[in-house]
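Structure ticket #2291
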Amino acid sequence: MSMEKKGNSNLFALQQRRGDRCPRCGKGQMLLDNASGEQFCSNCGYVVKERIEEAGPEWRSFQQDSEMGRDPRRTGIPSTLAMHDMGLSTVIGLENRDASGRSLQSSMKTTLERLRTWDRRSQVHESVDRNLRQAFSELDRLAEKLNVSDSVIEKAAYIYRKAIERKLIRGRSISGLIAASLYAAFRNTETPRTLKDVASVANLKKKDLARSYRLLLREMDLRMPVADPIKCVSRIASKAGVTERTKRRAIDILRRAQDTRTSAGKDPMGLAASALYVACVMENESKTQKDIAEAAGVTEVTIRNRYKGLKEALRM
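Resolution: structure written out below.
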């Protein structure tokens, strides 16, 4: 060991013996910078150790040791409802080595390969497991296209599992029911995604998706919160290229409409689009009804009708 490394190790050992005091000046308290991973003295600024590793659990696996052939992972993947086995199944690794790192004999390799095959088959032995694997594969595809958060995916998986428990999947399409579960999760978490958005990425007719969604509501007795049109304003404004000032004016209009109960029973996307068009008129921003309607995915007739209602109710 070089003198420099030996000196550093001795300093670190000294710091460990003295407790929280600096090994150089002996006065300052030792501090830890979580951002850079440095441990340093609060008095003289002496850095005792750099790049300290996080000691908690890690949701990743390290690279395998080429010499010993071992995978030094400390934890597996987190458990989730969006996997057919919730991420709790055992997996036989692909390394054909024993505990000492030595290569296995050819006969044992053949036996191990057969064990891996039966292990994979046993995980999807029942029809429910095969159903869940296909459904959650479709859910991953939809979530990637719609940019869905993990909480929404978990909620959709929970709703679909409950639907299977009540045997609602029999005679119905897996893709249709998982898409309906995803839309129900959007409604439950108040995420601004419309029925048309889900139907387009799922390659389903809007009417068929709505039928499956109503089935879930009826048979599972789901209670969905009332959609907030204010949460739809940012999405429409971003697509239409509306300024921040106009967007804030539209939010203020919607809040006034909620106070006067003008928004009761109205489609949130259509109401948000109408409020945004009213704000464009008030702020002298050159946006037509067609521009706002295309950004919101509603018709111009809807915007005109809601526009009249907002003007009468708010006396603008």
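Closing remark: The first strand starts at residue 30 and ends at 33.
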